[in-house]
Amino acid sequence: MDRFDCDSSLDISTMPLWNDPNCLKVRIILQHAIQHKTYENVDMPEGALDLIRMYLFSFPPLIAAEVQKNFPSVTNKQVHNAWVQLSADFWKMDEDQIISAKMLLVKLKDQADAWEFDVPEGVQAIGWGLKGIAERLREQVVEVALDATCECSLQFLNFYWIISSQHESR
Ligand SMILES: [Zn+2]
After folding, report:
1. What is the pLDDT of residue 168?
2. From ligand 1's centre to the CA of 7, what distance in Å?
3. Separation of CA 27 and ligand 1 centre (Å)
4. Is the pLDDT of residue 3 over 90?
5. Distance 68 CA to ligand 1 centre (A)
6. I need a labelling partner for 158 at 20 to 30 A (CA). Which of 16, 32, 135, 146 fits?
């Protein structure tokens, strides 16, 4: 949003009337020195939020395109932020990322295996495997690779993942 050095101020003061102390005299001074481009309401329209809720499990750029068909002033970034907040209801169990992830793994135990690790003191680790993927790869994996990224979270947790590949059966 643009900001303007327009010397604007609003000053409201009250004072009891001298002849009737139960009544207040209210004085309002509104000042605005230059005429500039007017502000527009950049709040997310409720209808746009409804669309995001409807397409919550879709890909954010696709959701943004859908929202902008009906609400052209809504930006991609607004859609992304709203999508992050709305989708958090499904996965965010706690403010602490590790606790949250562990709680989510318990909740989704039918879909994911939680793995336990022996780790040195001061190290926290959680691991999981997705049963749906493992089941499809059973006895077909030809290659397994390990990859990692660091400082990918607010708590500077490192993230490692194992990727396996399979060849199409001929
Ligand atoms: Zn102004």
Report:
1. 62
2. 7
3. 21
4. no
5. 29
6. 135
Give me ligand 1 centre to Cα 73, in Å.
22
**What is the distance between the alpha carbons of residues 143 and 145, in angstroms, rounded to a whole number?**
7
The CA distances from residue 68 to 40, 62, 63, 85, 128, in Å, are 17, 10, 9, 19, 37
Q: State in Å: Cα 39 to ligand 1 middle.
A: 9
Q: Residue written as tokens 């995001």?
A: 52
The rounded distance, in Å, linking the Cα atoms of 162 and 170 is 25
How far, in Å, is the centroid of ligand 1 from the Cα of 12?
A: 18
3-class state of residue 69 by DSSP: helix
**Cα(104) to centroid of ligand 1, in Å?**
48
pLDDT at 133: 86
Residue range 80-107: mean pLDDT, rounded = 91
**Amino acid found at 59:** F
Q: How far is the CA of 30 from the centre of ligand 1 (A)?
A: 11
Distance 166 CA to ligand 1 centre (A): 62
Cα 67 to the center of its chain, rounded Å? 17
β-strands 159-166, 141-149: how paired? antiparallel
CA nearest 158: which of 148, 166, 143, 168?
148
Instruction: For residue 147, name the pLDDT band (cuts at 50, 70, 90).
Output: confident
